[in-house]
Amino acid sequence: MLVVEPTLAMGFTFALIVLAITLFAWERYPIELVGIGILAVMLVAFHLAPVTDAEGRDVLDARALLAGFAEPALITVLALMVVGQALVRTHALQSLVSLILQVTGAHWRWSIWVLLVFGMTLSAFINNTPVVVIFIPIMQAVASELRVSPSKIMMPLNMALILGGMTTLIGSSTNLLAAGLYQGMTGRTVGLFDMTPLALCLAVPGIAYVLLVAPRLLADRASMASALVADSGRQYLSQIVVGEKSALVGTTAVAGMFPGLPDVSVQLVQRGEHAELPPFDGFTLAAGDVLIVAATRKALTDAVLKDPGLTAELDVSVAEPPSDGERKPPAQRVLAEVMVAPASRIVGQNLEMIGFRRQFGCIVIGIQRRSRMIRTRITEIRLEPGDVLLIQGHRQDVRALRGDADFILMEWSQTELPSPHLARRVGLVFAAMLALIATEALPVVVAAVGAAVLVILIRAVNVRQAARAIDRRIVFLIACSVALSTALEATGGSRYIALTLLHAVGAEASPALALSAYYFVVMVMTNVLSNNATALLFTPVGIGLAGSVGVDPFVFLLATIFASDSSFATPIGYQTNVLVMGPGHYRFVDYVRAGLPLNLLLWIVFSLAAPWYYNLT
Q1: What is the pLDDT of residues 550-599, one digit of tens each?
Q2: How many Å from the N-terminal Cα to the C-terminal Cα in the chain?
Q3: DSSP letter (8 states) at residue 284
């Protein structure tokens, strides 16, 4: 068996990969900062100590290391993000969802299954992130109608969409990036449906698990609003405004309680753009303070009657659409949950910097990040994508957030659809793009870029909205990962890892055993690192291992893609895992409990199906 001798350049590349993996997983520093930092180190190091080929040419110069920024797969991913944003903004897919809900309206429990399968089908042709953004409020409304916890359906939704994304070339950015790197190394292109037959072998048992098993492994979790109210059904979250003539002006809290408010639990005091949270020891109330309180209706009424200087709105309700046949009088103020959208312009800012109350007319009562409710100094917390805000405000102010691209309002109404002509135009553009890719009339990157330009020209999105749809973290993550993959291949590191892995499973190991072991290693890594970075780092390794065992490298490419997409066991493996974490009120252990069995199921199915399908002995 061939042996690759380790070199100093190879060791340096391995060290950079370990550093990148550690920093990406740690999440202490922004992904884009880590990516550009690793790139800078590589540019300097390989300029001072060039890596040359047999003809003496520098194979790791600046052009080679920065090629990731011009990678056609990256351009394709970014273009598809713009098209996905157009689909979201025009609600082009909501009309189809409305039709499904009308057909299954009499059988709401069946509607969950139908919606999951429909979402899985959509994700085969649209990047998962916009599909998740579309479906989260829809599934939230269905959960409310069924009176089941969103925790029972949000993670199954994410799992179904990831499984659907495995089935075609454009279903996931991971597929496109790995296929692009594969084409650059082997000169072979991957068709739109080349991976579909084997992917369906994984998707069918996978969706069966998602529908039948996963909900049983997930615990019921209460929403943020119910967590703030001690006795659901008797107490209410309400708002009290301290007037200038109120007896509470100048009152200082004693042992965390305000003497003028017996039997009332003060949850938050909003003063201007600043929010004060318990404990309130030493805090003195002033005129104009807004108190968010939890109490019975009688206790609130008594407090207002004893102090005419107080103004209270007692009929606060959760902002959800009523059930069929049910008519509720509109409350003056409502409670609602909104999620910070990916690529939102408010990411990295806190509530005071945003001027949230002044700009949106709503008060933030709580912030939930990755299933943990954060209430300490909430106005000082810098917001991140996926954060869920519990807000209180007038109904019209809350509903206005639905049209704001920075937020995803956690409710949905099938009666509120935009002008249909834009939705039809975007749908036609999307269908034409798929047809051109499927028939190979145009390369994927050309069709995707053309579709992105068309949705801008027909004004489905403007240039600013298109730019905001592009996630800069993906750009720098991919550029860094491509540079590391290039260095791994140029220094012989990928070949070295492949031979080491082959030695680990046995020098005389069959291709089927080597393929199964490789899939398992990549599957473990994708749940620690991001799926895109894992695919880019391991694609050269898979190609090298295929050469060592003497099989078609395309089989190992599929193993790389499917294993990299299997990021079910942790919330950090894929962006959509984080997006459903807040609405589903999940904890880290929930991903392990429900995701790990699915990972193992797909590994076993792939280990059996791939050798059979490709006749590996």
Answers
A1: 899 999 999 999 999 998 988 777 778 877 877 787 887 888 899 999 99
A2: 19
A3: B
Judged against a pLDDT cut of 90, whether residue 249 lies above it is answered with: no
DSSP 341-357: PTT-TTTT--HHHHTHH
- Give pLDDT tens digits for 99-131: 666 666 545 567 788 888 888 998 898 877 778
DSSP state of 571: T
439-457: b or e for each residue (b if 16 or more CB lie within 10 Å)? eeeeebbbbbbbbbebbbe
Token output for 241: 């405004």
Task: Tell me which amino acid residue 453 is.
Answer: V
Q: How far is CA 183 from CA 72, 179, 198, 436, in A?
A: 11, 6, 20, 20
List, as own/partner pairs, every contact residues 350-353 make where C-beta atoms lie below 8 angstroms and the sequence separation is at least 24, other chains included: 350/379, 350/380, 350/381, 350/382, 350/383, 351/273, 351/275, 351/378, 351/379, 351/381, 351/383, 352/273, 352/274, 352/379, 352/380
What is the secondary structure of 378-407 as a DSSP string? GGGPPP-TT-EEEEEEEHHHHHHGGG-TTE
The answer to whether 352 and 197 have CB atoms below 8 angstroms apart is: no
**Which pTM does this prediction carry?**
0.70
Q: Which of 41-55, 323-337, 527-541 has the highest mean pLDDT?
A: 41-55
Looking at this protein, which amino acid is placed at residue 474?
Answer: I
Measured between alpha carbons, how far is 364 from 380 in angstroms, rounded to an integer? 12
pLDDT at residue 196 greater than cutoff 80: yes
Closest CA to 528 of 478, 580, 566, 582: 566
Helix 31-48 with 472-490: angle, nearest 10 deg? 30
- Locate 555 and state its tokens: 């089989």
Q: Is the pLDDT of residue 334 over 80?
A: no
Residue listed under structure tokens 């809350």: 398
Strand order from edge to edge, sheet including 235-242: 274-276, 265-271, 290-296, 235-242, 310-313
The pLDDT of residue 418 is 45
Whether residue 39 has pLDDT greater than 70: yes
What crossing angle do the helices spanning 173-186 and 531-549 adopt, rounded to 10°?
Answer: 40
Q: In angstroms, what is the C-alpha Rg of the chain?
A: 27
Mean pLDDT along residues 409-414: 61
Q: Which has the closest alpha carbon to 603: 553, 568, 551?
A: 568
Partners of 238 in the beta sheet? 293
Our measurement of the distance from residue 229's CA atom to the centroid of its chain's CA atoms, rounded to an integer in Å, reads 29
Report the DSSP pairing between strands 407-409 and 372-374: unpaired
